[in-house]
Amino acid sequence: DSSDLDSVLDFINQHYAKPNPKYYGIAKGKNVIVIHLESFQQFLIDDKVNGKTVTPFLNSLYHDDQTYAFSNFFNQVGQGKTSDAENMLETGVYGLPQGSVFTTLGSDNTFQAAPAILSQQAGYSSAVFHGNVGSFWNRDNVYKNFGYQNFFDASYFDTTGDRSEQYGLKDKLLFANSVKYLERLQQPFYAKFITVTNHFPFPLDQEDGDFPIPNTADKAVNNYFATAHYLDQSVHEFFNYLKRSGLYKNSVIVIYGDHYGLSNTDNLSLAPLLGKTADTWNDYDNAQLQRVPFMIHIPGQHNGGIQTQYGGEIDVLPTLEHLLGISNKNYVQFGTDLFSKQHDQVVAFRNNNFVTPTHTVIDGTIYNNADGAIITHPDATLKATIKKEQAKVETELQTSDTVNNKNLLRFYTPTGFTPVNPEKYNYHNDFG
Ligand code: GP9
Ligand code: MN
């Protein structure tokens, strides 16, 4: 009811972070290409196995001065995994404490999402490319509520035989077979590519690569490096195409890992590969592995570099909107622009745990990020700080849950935004 909406708008207004004039609009009018790296974790960047570099191309992007590369960026997904990441990145609202917001509420809820915002504010066309069936995670319904004009799902590709693996068309084939559609999108476009090959338990056909994998006791850990290497090659091939086609220079390319690939159990076999041992491995170590890449590559602009501010998936939409010169002042988005001087570096995990530049707090236990040690007797100041941060995390997540569970955006239309009419979209007409 309206008092719920008032408390949501109060939180959003108090938490708003103003744009940083140095970055506002620097990518205005450029195509936005979003590359969703399935299950790709930050520790793979610059990693070597048996002396062999796992992801040479993504490493080169990470260190390129045209890239803003975030070294302390965390996934914040719950059980909705990929779909939670999509919801956060494209609406600025969290997923649910249980289940997937796409599946449980996505067909009928009102969303104010990136495809609609970019279309209405800056004339962007939009498309998603994903080699799985469109009904997975209820995407074919959700995307209409997001205002996506096109959704190129498995039905647009030949996914037969060894062209697919587990969740759909192999990544190299997704990129290669999407370009004929991408080239026909009216520019500027907002185009998202959701990869699948690097997905637990990371099977890979012989013909798709021969990366020398480690031989831990955990097959998923071993195979993770082979599928990550394959994904790296896929992105490399796509960049080559973007450069050859001329799209590269007119685009900003956003790359992110959606969530962890290896679970806390797998991490015990991974530990030795990270220079640690299973017997000292703990919750602090598991939390540090929740980092995923987040890179904003702006061809032709050489002011990039590693960004160390702490942030997460909830912060992507406000950051992107400001880079495109779009104000999100009146939108219900829970994150803050990573470049803003008011950016909030308290990163909430879906289970109420959180991480800040100085501490990691897991079920109330405070770890010092400097050395991973538990702070058993925090002084009064630290105790008060952690208490305040924990309260912010819980309020933020509960407020987001209220927006989702009560479908509050039905009752609130930001000035300048026109509610999306999902009936306008049909993803199976022959692409006009
Ligand atoms: C399914 C693919 C994988 O289409 O996006 O989803 P996940 O299992 O990572 O949520
Ligand atoms: Mn995923």
UniProtKB/TrEMBL annotation:
Q: Where in the cell is it found?
A: Cell membrane
Pathway given for this chain reads: Cell wall biogenesis; lipoteichoic acid biosynthesis
Q: Name the Gene Ontology molecular function terms of this record.
A: metal ion binding
List of residues binding substrate: H199
Give the annotated active site: T82
Predominant location category: membrane
Q: Where does Mn(2+) bind?
A: E38, T82, D258, H259
Q: What is this protein called?
A: Sulfatase family protein
| Membrane topology reported for the UniProt record | Multi-pass membrane protein
Could you tell me the keywords of this UniProt record?
A: Cell membrane, Manganese, Membrane, Metal-binding, Transmembrane, Transmembrane helix
Residue span, Sulfatase N-terminal domain:
30-326
Q: Name one GO cellular component term.
A: plasma membrane
Full protein stretch here = 223 to 654 of 723
Stated family: Belongs to the LTA synthase family.
Q: Which domain of life is it from?
A: Bacteria
